[in-house]
């Protein structure tokens, strides 16, 4: 019996075409039974209650326990002891030493070399790359970089998938990027407004509509400059757990410049690098990384892409997202990452309503 | 929050299972409990309307507001009981009963012309005019031998929908 409104009732995790999902043509005369049968829509709603891909994007995955065995348990205890009593203090000392070198030299360079702009910027770049590699070392970051290193030239913007603020640190230790970032509070905010500011980083507040316009303007100015650090954007706008990728914001794809995709994939063998900012402060997140054995990760610098003729910025963004998702082996979901912070808008339900209305009207004609 | 599933004892699970007439396996109930705790963000013991609406796939459902009235503030036992109509073990009658409840918003055991119209309004939104909707409902009621003034009872519903295969099966993911 043909259903009036047919859709996928199963909990399908790969809803790539969710947005473009069109109900298969239902034919035949419209009967009372067809109109009353709302079961596909109900089961969709129940499916979303039981499981949904949006929540899955932001779920931190605790490591598989492997120590519940009499033989392995002492080994695990030894591991915990090593991590917390030996590795952690060593890492704290390392981090401390790094800052001891970095802060005075950075201030010296910043204030003494005011006149020699070019040299100052070069030295500042080196110093920021240095402190970032200290950070990476403090969680024994085992990072493998694939592909050519980013170069400094105007009219290009780098986009990467986002898992945690450590993405930025990992990329920054290789190349001093200027990054577009959410403004944070606390010590991160302090670093943002002092040190990172000098790299040309741009801050904004997600909730401020006005900030968006200002950021777009600043980005446009930034990509034009020849001596500016390459621009890095995390177009998802929020941290995702590295298993999925949410929709890209279209702004970096509207700048009329080359987009260089970067794919980042973390190996969860020792620790989950996802920063769940709603549950954990960044400090706690770093502490968790610093008490683990290592952070293992792959970074791919992918082939630069340009807007094809006839392509809209949104299509372009989707194409780049595809490239990153395939390389990093993460699944695409059609959701806006900002819905983590604000209410979804009802545009999507309107699409469903439209499909339903058209189907009913069409079948009413077929009497 | 992640450990809260361990708080379900064998007794709890059996009690919930009984409450939903054994339509879910024990494993499914454990999974549902994890999900319940995930949605009940601040551990109040029930899921508020706001928390349901934070799931985009639910919020975009044209019937979400209507369903909210049925699921808002349910505790875990009733939450499972509500979902049990979507279990593959649920009978056709149970599924039809649930659909009847969705239509019968004033819970008087009768579905009137206006009830059907209201659901159709949710389903079609701004893409159909009120006249078109009335025309559609009128037309199908007449075709099936009912008039505009008569109201449908649960038995009528079972007669109308009973012969079809309804798509109401939802799988509980087991991890």
UniProtKB/TrEMBL annotation, chain A:
Family annotation (SMART domains): PlsC
Localization per Swiss-Prot or TrEMBL: Membrane
Residue stretches making up the Phospholipid/glycerol acyltransferase domain: 156-267
Chain segments annotated as transmembrane: 68-86, 92-113, 125-145
An example Gene Ontology CC term for this record: membrane
Keyword set, alphabetical order: Acyltransferase, Lipid biosynthesis, Lipid metabolism, Membrane, Phospholipid biosynthesis, Phospholipid metabolism, Transferase, Transmembrane, Transmembrane helix
A Pfam family of this chain: Acyltransferase
Alphabetized SUPFAM superfamilies for the sequence: Glycerol-3-phosphate (1)-acyltransferase
A molecular function (GO) term: glycerol-3-phosphate O-acyltransferase activity
Main location, first listed in the record: membrane
Superkingdom field: Eukaryota
Pathway: Lipid metabolism
Biological process (GO), any one: seed oilbody biogenesis
Family: Belongs to the 1-acyl-sn-glycerol-3-phosphate acyltransferase family.
Protein name according to UniProt: Phospholipid/glycerol acyltransferase domain-containing protein
Species of origin: Amborella trichopoda
Lineage: Eukaryota, Viridiplantae, Streptophyta, Embryophyta, Tracheophyta
TrEMBL record, chain B:
Gene3D superfamilies: EF-hand
Ranges where the EF-hand domain occurs: 27-62, 91-126
Keyword annotations from UniProtKB, A to Z: Calcium
GO MF entry, a single one: calcium ion binding
A Pfam family hit: EF-hand_5
Protein name per UniProt: EF-hand domain-containing protein
Source organism of this protein record: Amborella trichopoda
